[in-house]
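Hello Y.,

Per our agreement to keep a running log of every chain we model this quarter, I'm adding this entry. I've kept the format consistent with earlier entries: sequence first, then predicted structure.
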Amino acid sequence: MTRSENTFRVLGVDPGLGVTGYAVLRLDEGEYEPRLVDGGVLKNDSSAPIEKRLYELHKDLTQIIETHGPHVMAVENLYSHYKHPRTSIIMGHARGVIFLAASQAHVPVVSYAATEIKKSLVGAGRATKAQVQRMVQQRMRLHDLPEPADVADAIAAAYCHIDRSYLRRTQAIGSGT
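Predicted structure for the entry above:
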């Protein structure tokens, strides 16, 4: 896909090995709110060996990148909890494959903490999954709540990047830089 000078596309990704949420948001020049172009989940066979699952994730995400030609990818930072180190390691594998797919397509990746993503969208860094889903539904003008929550989280990551990029641009303009 060719990139338009008047359109900014962000691919938001909520990383996971079994289920990865993705969403493409588009912000046209002169607009203040982005529009949802595509979103969903990438799933693979949980009984397959990890290398096969990672391959499927890479292949599916590469196809999404080729289809939508995002300018940037926004990904939630890896959060690890000392009680679940194995989960962090598995998530690290998935994130590595996600970053590889972006790099191969020359798409820069920006990571945001979960609290920053929630604060950008909901106004509270400790918002619940349900609050994020409701706010995504409202901001994207969706008839139904985005399901599963992985899709809402991917939309929220992309929205956060657009929100933060817009804030940086307006602050730079205001300061004369």
